[in-house]
UniProtKB/TrEMBL annotation:
<feature type="transmembrane region" description="Helical">
    <location>
        <begin position="231"/>
        <end position="249"/>
    </location>
</feature>
<keyword id="KW-1133">Transmembrane helix</keyword>
<keyword id="KW-0472">Membrane</keyword>
<dbReference type="GO" id="GO:0016020">
    <property type="term" value="C:membrane"/>
</dbReference>
<keyword id="KW-0812">Transmembrane</keyword>
<dbReference type="InterPro" id="IPR044878">
    <property type="entry name" value="UbiA_sf"/>
</dbReference>
<dbReference type="InterPro" id="IPR000537">
    <property type="entry name" value="UbiA_prenyltransferase"/>
</dbReference>
<feature type="transmembrane region" description="Helical">
    <location>
        <begin position="43"/>
        <end position="59"/>
    </location>
</feature>
<protein>
    <submittedName>
        <fullName>UbiA prenyltransferase family</fullName>
    </submittedName>
</protein>
<feature type="transmembrane region" description="Helical">
    <location>
        <begin position="205"/>
        <end position="225"/>
    </location>
</feature>
<feature type="transmembrane region" description="Helical">
    <location>
        <begin position="104"/>
        <end position="125"/>
    </location>
</feature>
<dbReference type="Pfam" id="PF01040">
    <property type="entry name" value="UbiA"/>
</dbReference>
<dbReference type="InterPro" id="IPR050475">
    <property type="entry name" value="Prenyltransferase_related"/>
</dbReference>
<dbReference type="GO" id="GO:0016765">
    <property type="term" value="F:transferase activity, transferring alkyl or aryl (other than methyl) groups"/>
</dbReference>
């Protein structure tokens, strides 16, 4: 019995595994940085709320359309291609998660963002939001904004956010919208086989040129307009520049995976100046 429960929990975590460093960690840091009120209990509520809503998205995304076949090429360790759960069982899990997440949002106070995440998940998976790089980038920026909005509300135990908090979330969404194609370089080979129209495949040279330019520009802008510690901000600018140059000059799948790790560290740190 305990072994069955443990295997089920591991399967749930594997749905979220690749997005722990891209969603759960940066959104939690972002929310705690923006919150004017802090407590241990609210912190764990933030983590659990983000993780559960992310789970609804990942389960839905990994069961829709040709996702199982794509994951077999790009991410074979995910639960479905690893044969830890069947597609039908995962679809049922996704339908069960929707009311569970709504109840969780009612309890924690993140209802608007929670409902919007469910709607945007449907747009992304069933409405074709994933099929073109422009709509995909827009959806990704929307997801980050909604996760950050809901997490900040929960962390702050507040029904409304102030102007500075909303401005920070908007700034974060713009950064994500213009740079999130960083995640596509590592999957180019598999995406090309599947005929996907990612930004990096549609504009293979230009997409790499944009990385050092955009990461450096955003880093410098945050340096100039932030009141954060200048030494910390200078390190942030250097990290952005190094990451951008890596994407431009180092082009193997292994290098792109490491560059994307640097990008995620940079993404976590951008919450501090914002």
């Amino acid at each position: 019995m305990l072994s069955t429960i443990w295997n089920f929990l591991v399967t749930l975590q594997l749905f979220n595994q690749s997005d722990m460093k891209t969603i759960v960690l940066p959104v939690t840091v972002f929310a705690e940085a923006l919150a004017s009120y802090h407590s241990v209990s609210r912190f764990f509520l933030v983590v659990f709320w983000v993780w559960m809503h992310l789970l609804y998205f990942t389960v839905t995304n990994q069961t829709f359309g040709t996702s199982p076949e794509e994951d077999a090429v790009n991410k074979p360790n995910r639960p479905i291609p690893a044969q830890r759960i069947t597609v039908d069982s995962a679809v049922t899990l996704g339908w069960l998660l929707a009311p569970i997440d709504l109840a969780l949002s009612l309890y924690t106070g993140g209802v608007p963002a929670g409902i919007a995440i469910c709607v945007l998940t449907s747009i992304y998976c069933r409405g074709g939001g994933h099929s073109h790089w422009l709509s995909k980038n827009g959806c990704c920026a929307g997801f980050y904004a909604l996760f950050e909005y809901g997490a900040t509300q929960i962390a702050d135990s507040s029904d409304t956010l102030n102007q500075n908090q909303l401005g920070a979330i908007l700034g974060s969404a713009l950064i994500i919208f213009t740079t999130i194609h960083a995640q596509d370089f590592r999957d180019d080979e598999g995406d090309a086989l599947l005929g996907r129209r990612t930004f990096t495949l549609s504009f293979p040279i230009f997409s790499r040129i944009t990385m050092p330019i955009l990461l450096a520009a955003w880093s410098i802008a945050l340096y100039l307009f932030s009141e954060a510690n200048r030494a910390l901000m200078l390190a942030f600018v250097v990290l952005g520049a190094v990451t951008g140059v890596r994407f431009l000059t180092l082009k193997s799948a292994k290098d792109d995976r490491l560059s994307y790790l640097y990008y995620n560290v940079s993404n976590i740190l951008h919450s501090l100046p914002l």
